[in-house]
Specification:
Blueprint lengths: L2 H8 L13 E6 L3 H13 L2 E7 L7 E3 L2 E4 L4 H7 L4 E4 L4 H11 L9 E2 L4 E2 L4 E2 L4 E2 L4 E2 L4 E2 L4 E2 L4 E2 L4 E2 L4 E2 L4 E2 L4 E2 L4 E2 L4 E2 L4 E2 L4 E2 L4 E2 L7 E4 L4 E5 L5
Parallel strand pairs: 1-2, 1-5, 2-4, 6-9, 7-10, 8-11, 9-12, 10-13, 11-14, 12-15, 13-16, 14-17, 15-18, 16-19, 17-20, 18-21, 19-22, 21-23
Antiparallel strand pairs: 3-4, 23-24
The structure holds coenzyme A.
The site of coenzyme A (COA) has 14 residues, from strand 23 and strand 24.
Length: about 240
């Protein structure tokens, strides 16, 4: 498989040469554990067909089960081959996801946002481009989710909460009403944040923590109630 074959196949058909379907073509960037979960969420949605998975590990173009495996350096060309093609960055690490967005340099409209059919998202909530809301998650009235955010399985984002770009709300964690989680914040598995608390940019909240007071940008906080144990430079 060479690059020209890949590009002609990407411009409207699957790797096996079948013609394009009613499903919009999608490229997933990231083939780690999180990437494979995201791929499952995409398949459950039945709105997109995955035409390619891009990962730095894929140095040669290959095709497996009708899906191309390519280097991220190919993504831009693939996107330009078909104006319907969308991209989703499925990298769990918030900083690496953020730097991949810089690397690809795509406009926001080329990113898909995915809401699993078993998630519950209010019609009065906003989900930004490149964000994923996984199975069992709830996003309630007035919540605002930025771009390239992960709302992981079973997480709850309550009314009027704000979640900044590149944040990750881990499985079964809860942001109560009016919470603000800053850019790149990572809320650990099963953590809770009480109403109106502000979590600074690039904070890390430990698994199982209960956050009852604002956290400064770059803090790592653990426990019940959560206490700051580390303070980092916030530059991603
Ligand atoms: C908070 C966290 C990031 C800290 O990781 P770290 O920076 O490597 O810190 P360490 O493991 O060195 O732990 C530092 C101290 O905090 C304690 N600690 C770490 N995580 C804790 C947690 N979740 N709750 C309570 N205490 C915790 C450690 O026991 C250690 O205490 P000690 O100094 O008395 O020995 C990590 O433990 C964590 O909880 N990550 C969340 C992971 C997650 O939910 N991922 C989602 C994947 S979908």
């Amino acid at each position: 498989m060479d690059e020209s074959q890949l590009l002609s196949a990407a411009a409207g058909s699957n790797a096996d040469g079948r013609s394009s379907s009613r499903l919009a073509p999608l490229i997933i960037v990231g083939d780690g554990g999180h990437g494979r979960v995201v791929a499952d969420n995409v398949r459950a949605l039945e709105s997109f067909r995955i035409i390619a998975v891009a990962d730095d590990r894929f140095t040669n173009i290959a095709c497996r089960d009708g899906v191309f495996h390519v280097h991220p350096g190919m993504v831009r060309e693939l996107v330009e081959a078909d104006h319907n093609t969308k991209v989703l960055i499925a990298i769990g690490d918030n900083r690496i996801r953020s730097s991949m967005v810089q690397r690809l340099g795509l406009p926001p409209e080329r990113y898909a946002s995915i809401v699993h059919p078993a998630a519950c998202v209010s019609k009065h909530a906003y989900i930004g481009p490149g964000s994923v809301v996984m199975a069992g998650a709830v996003v309630n009235h007035g919540a605002c989710i930025g771009a390239h955010v992960i709302i992981n399985s079973g997480a709850v984002v309550e009314h009027d909460a704000e979640v900044g770009w590149f944040a990750h709300i881990s499985p079964n964690s809860t942001l109560a009403g009016n919470v603000a989680a800053g850019e790149g914040a990572h809320i650990g598995i099963g953590a809770s944040v009480i109403p109106s608390v502000r979590i600074g940019a690039w904070c890390v909240v430990g698994a199982g923590a209960a956050v009852i007071r604002d956290l400064p940008a770059g803090a790592t906080a653990v426990g019940v109630p959560a206490k700051v144990i580390k303070q980092r430079d916030i530059i991603p």
